Amino acid sequence: MALKFKRVLLKISGEALKGSGDIYDKDKLDEVAKQVIELTKQGLQIGIVIGGGNIWRGKLADTLELFRIEADYMGMLATIMNALAFEATLRKLGFDKVKVYSSLEIKTVTSSYNYRNAREKLDEGYVTIFAGGTGYSYFTTDTGASIRAIEIEADALLMAKNGTKGVYDSDPNTNPEAKFLENLTHNDLVKKNLQVMDSTAAALSRDGKLEIVVFDMNGKDNIIKIANGDLECTVIK
Ligand code: UDP
């Protein structure tokens, strides 16, 4: 296998770390971390954004009769918790070249985000984890991932899905006739409202000419496979 990219931004949803656990599943964390370590050994430079949906989402504000803005900051904090969980898993597995940046100031356990510093660390072989999303309410970690991918000059944003191999023209879970789409343009993504990422993230990716690869992370070594161009997926460029 040969790497298809030199530098990527891997976006994982928080739910992906949950597995059958309440918040985390040890096997899921280990499985993703081991693949990331293996890819760094192959020479891939990896930035990671992890969502927070396994812990909290801003949209749940109404369930507690909270204001959306506080609820969104709670969601951003959830992404920081996930980043620390993933960092700790990498370290547990003996991999220490990892740096967590946060868009929110949490100086004890994260570094302030700085794109130049992040690029340097990636060049040095560090896995860089970008926590805290954009740092602003009313955004998502998809948008955070698009921005970080553009800023670190990633060759691609690898959008990991749970159990869907890429993009379809309709929901394959409800429509057995749904057609799989292998290649798309950014305009398709923005105009057709495809279930890849939210519209802000889609528009940003288009403006930043960011290649997006949508793939199913559930499958043995699927992250390694996708980075080596060895897995069915949808490519958007
Ligand atoms: N969030 C936010 N701004 C950001 C990123 C995230 O306000 O830039 C909040 C938002 O409330 C969101 C939550 O953090 O619901 C968790 O992020 P997301 O839903 O993107 O996580 P995922 O669904 O990918 O696990």
Automatic annotation (TrEMBL):
Highest taxon above the source species: Bacteria
Pfam family of the protein (one): AA_kinase
Activity regulation: Inhibited by UTP.
Gene3D superfamilies for this protein: Acetylglutamate kinase-like (3.40.1160.10)
One of the record's GO molecular function terms: ATP binding
Binding site for ATP: K11, I12, S13, G14, G53, R57, N162, Y168, D171
UniProt keyword terms in alphabetical order: ATP-binding, Cytoplasm, Kinase, Nucleotide-binding, Pyrimidine biosynthesis, Transferase
Pathway(s): Pyrimidine metabolism; CTP biosynthesis via de novo pathway; UDP from UMP (UMPK route): step 1/1
InterPro entries in alphabetical order: AceGlu_kinase-like_sf, Asp/Glu/Uridylate_kinase, Uridylate_kinase, Uridylate_kinase_bac
Binding residue positions for UMP: G52, D72, T134, G135, Y136, S137, Y138, F139, T140, T141
All copies of domain Aspartate/glutamate/uridylate kinase, residue ranges: 6-216
GO cellular component: cytoplasm
Catalytic activity annotation: UMP + ATP = UDP + ADP
UniProt keyword Kinase, yes or no: yes
Main location per the UniProt record: cytoplasm
Subcellular location: Cytoplasm
Gene Ontology BP annotations: 'de novo' CTP biosynthetic process; UDP biosynthetic process
Keyword presence, ATP-binding: yes
Known EC number: 2.7.4.22
HAMAP family the UniProt entry points to: PyrH_B
Sequence similarity: Belongs to the UMP kinase family.
Quaternary organization: Homohexamer.
NCBIfam families referenced in this protein's UniProt entry, alphabetically: pyrH_bact
Name of the protein in question: Uridylate kinase
Organism the protein comes from: Spiroplasma diminutum CUAS-1
Lineage: Bacteria, Bacillati, Mycoplasmatota, Mollicutes, Entomoplasmatales
